[in-house]
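Sequence in, structure out.
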Amino acid sequence: MQNAGKKSGLDSGLPPNSAWNNAHDHQRCIEDAIVTAERICRERGARLTPIRGRILELVWESHRPAGAYALLDGLKPAHPSAAPPTVYRALEFLLKQGLVHRIQSLNAFVGCADPEHAHRGLFLICDACGDAVEIEDSAIDRAVAQSATQLGFALKSRTIEATGLCRQCSPALTAAATTS
């Protein structure tokens, strides 16, 4: 996933913490997300309970958006009495703290790559492998805001979800990458 505020990485290689970067250290990605979440919650006076922390960890276990029932299945071994409301309450907390994003089209959740500042999500979701990468592009943000203003529309929130094929799943992109 892309850190917000940085260049999108699409024209100059992928960011180091991107699921689509071959040099990506996923275990470090998870550890960094948990350490950052603990610090943010501590600074905000919010309580990252063990269950909330475990849900966040489960979200970060993959760069594929995770649904609430899949998260519940991952939570059950350590918390056998956990029920759907447990997961939904934890997700609500994580959303409020900006630690996860909801992928509306999939009714699923992904970890936020840059929870330290408010930003709008732009997600590239691979139709083949299911990975989702968060990017930020100020030109897109400006264009949406400008269009909304011109139409007299007051934006409350904005998330853009684009689907297609990542470079690992697209034969054309994979072939081009191996020949360059």
